Amino acid sequence: MIEFIGVEKKYSAATAVAQLDLTIDDNQFICVIGTSGSGKTTLLRMINRMIAPSTGTIKINGQDTAKLNEDELRRKIGYVIQNIGLFPHMSIRDNIMVVPGLLKWSAQQKQGIAERLIEKVELPLDYLERKPKNLSGGQQQRIGVIRALAANQDIILMDEPFGALDPITREALQEMIKRLQQEMQKTVIFVTHDIEEALKLADKIIIMDHGEVIQYDTVETIIKQPANAFVEELLGKRKKQTSLGNEMQVRDLMCSEVEAVSLSKSIHAAMEQMTRKRVDTLLVVDDENHLKGFIDIKDLNGSVPKETNLYEIMRTDTASVNQNENVADVVDPLLNMELKYLPVVDDENYLVGILTRSSLVSLIYAQLK
Ligand code: ADP
Ligand code: MG
Question: Are 203 and 294 part of one and the same domain?
Fold first, then answer.
């Protein structure tokens, strides 16, 4: 449990966080949202005393954090800031184990941690010995998230960790962090300026404006009973997508003619297929038509020998949607991402079609009429 008791942070010119009394229960996913400069980062950093409060007390499980030293705080609280990438010269394993290293854990204490974590995010064990540059961007992000869990602190602070990511990668990571938080029973305090993200992840949301906490409630209560006009306006920023394709499922809109290639084929064969079909990307499937990845023409030119197998170079962080999802839920990612289509899979991850951006056009047009 984290308690803020009469906490305030003042700088000579301004009050960054005004008189604050609130309690965060264990194993909660808390999002902190507000406009820029509203005090989110200050609130977060006071928890691990990167910023000392001007007045008041912060207690963790009843213990005043002012009385803990840096190492003790680090043992209790993990911290992830915006866009901090992996250290490029260190292996994935060493990247994951940075904080246990700082805490001078013994070899025995460190035993097996990197393996357990990388399995949790479904990456192969041998990636532990690779350098970050040998992983795709999405895979690196996943490692960045599990690194925050390596020292097994009960509390994880995250300051806009996914702020700069494309919507598809961000969505995948949101699902991942939420799953890990629940599986590993963590208290996560997560700063965001994206109301969608907050509503999706949080058990409770702290809404801030000009250093004041305007509302601290469950997602349900905030939606049903916004504390004031500021909160209403914040909620109003949610994309108006409820009426769009609300009852329609992805399967109703997808195109089931897909250009896919088997992962046992060579680059040469893939290029031939691309040329013939006049496409610049191909989805990669196994012999049973499970979606495994994709390749882009951009990855094929240059120095890769043309006999190379596709599974060696394909990208595996492919976003996909289930055919049973509502179209309304995939409109945003689809319109915001760089890819022109999303692969559609069934419950067993069999590739069953693609959803193209252009297929949305008629749907949106129908809404406008
Ligand atoms: P947010 O994370 O919500 O954007 P911050 O917590 O970073 O906001 O900042 C809250 C307020 O405190 C802002 O008005 C900011 O200008 C002010 N502030 C933050 N850090 C300092 C500092 N070191 N000195 C003076 N003012 C600061
Ligand atoms: Mg901030």
Answer: no
